[in-house]
Write a structure and sequence with these properties.
By secondary structure, the chain is an alpha+beta fold. The protein is built from one helix and four strands, in the order αββββ. It has one domain: Thiolase/Chalcone synthase (Peroxisomal Thiolase, Chain A, domain 1, 3-Layer(aba) Sandwich). Strands 1-2 form a two-stranded antiparallel ribbon. The chain is globular and about 35 Å long.
């Protein structure tokens, strides 16, 4: 099964995020870098308005893909 499964799992998580308007947590985020400003949801999820999500899948042999999904009406 391998990589297609991981891509499908990422798309499923993205669809969940769009449908539920819930950002999953950034796990194990403990010490922010003061020189790198990121909007993260450290260690627990949050309800936020989500219009777009980006799914990336990286694989061996440069078999990489990206998919942008937009929330429907």
């Amino acid at each position: 099964m391998g990589r297609p499964f991981f891509f499908a799992a990422g798309v499923a998580a993205a669809l969940f995020t769009l449908g539920e308007q819930f950002i999953p947590p950034t796990l194990n985020y403990e010490t922010p870098d003061p020189e790198c400003e990121l909007d993260v949801t450290p260690n627990k999820g949050a309800q936020k308005k989500v219009e777009h999500v980006l799914c990336n899948t990286l694989a061996f042999g440069s078999k990489n893909s990206a998919l942008v999904l937009r929330r429907g009406q």
